[in-house]
Amino acid sequence: MTVDAKTELRRRTLSRRDLVTHDEAHAASLAVVERALALVRRFAPRAAETGEVVSVYWPIRSELNTRPLLEALAAAKIATVLPVMTAVKRPLTFRAFSPGDDLMKGPFGLSEPAETQPAFDPDIVFSPLAAFDRRGYRLGYGGGIYDATLSQLRAKNRIVAVGVAYACQETDAVPTEPHDQKLDFLLTELELIDFHG
User: Fold this and answer.
1) pLDDT tens, residue by residue, 42-66
2) Could you tell me if 147 and 181 are in contact, meaning their C-beta atoms sit under 8 angstroms apart?
3) Is 45 helix (H, G, I), strand (E, B) or coil?
4) For residue 106, what pLDDT band results from cuts at 50, 70 and 90?
5) CATH number, residue 68
6) What share of the chain has pLDDT > 70, as a percent?
7) Strands 131-132 and 185-187: what pairing?
8) pTM for the whole structure
9) Residue 12 burial by CB count (10 A; 0-12/13-18/19+): exposed, middle or buried?
């Protein structure tokens, strides 16, 4: 599939996402929390004691709101980090975050923890996306950042990659390239999809 086809797919799925109403968005943000926590408990059952780290994105534009999940993880005493963008097609770094911490605008306009916050590699990564399919592939925003990040993290350790999206962002087949990293799970307001099943 050409770059133009990817661009068109991204445009279509993001346009659908933009149509989610405020009430639907609020309900979806709450609906994903329990399934997300169940995944964390499954893959890091003693995270509060053993220090496994969970990365959750800070939502922008019409992304599914993960702030209730960040609050639930903090209440469960599970260490969380937010991604920090350094450059296009370069892996993210991850800095410690707790609800209530001040965020700063990073060089790419994203809300990020301060540079003084310690950096950690996450064990579980919840990532945003533009589109997904039932094979476990995600279409991002075109920068290749999460593919580079997952590749780097997987080279060092076993991680669990979880896409987070509205059900309306599903497509029949995401166009893939050799460098694309598959997700382990996909979480929507309606279901948890296990790509190992």
Assistant:
1) 999 998 889 999 999 999 999 999 9
2) yes
3) coil
4) confident
5) 3.40.50.10420
6) 98
7) unpaired
8) 0.95
9) middle
**DSSP character for 169?**
G
| 8 A C-beta contact, residue 139 and residue 175 | yes
Residue 20: name the closest of 52, 56, 61, 78 by CA.
61
Q: Which two tokens stand for residue 82?
A: 């937010």
What is the structure's pLDDT at 2? 59
The dihedral formed by the CA atoms of 69, 74, 76 and 77, expressed in degrees to the nearest 10: 150
Structure confidence by residue, pLDDT tens digits, 151-163: 999 999 999 999 9
- Tokens describing residue 183: 């997700």
Per DSSP, helices labelled H in the chain are 3-18, 22-43, 47-50, 67-75, 145-156
DSSP code of 134? Answer: T
Q: Range of 70's domain?
A: 3-194
Tally of CB atoms within 10 A around 101: 12
Instruction: Check residue 4 and give its pLDDT.
Output: 85
Count of structural domains, the chain? 1
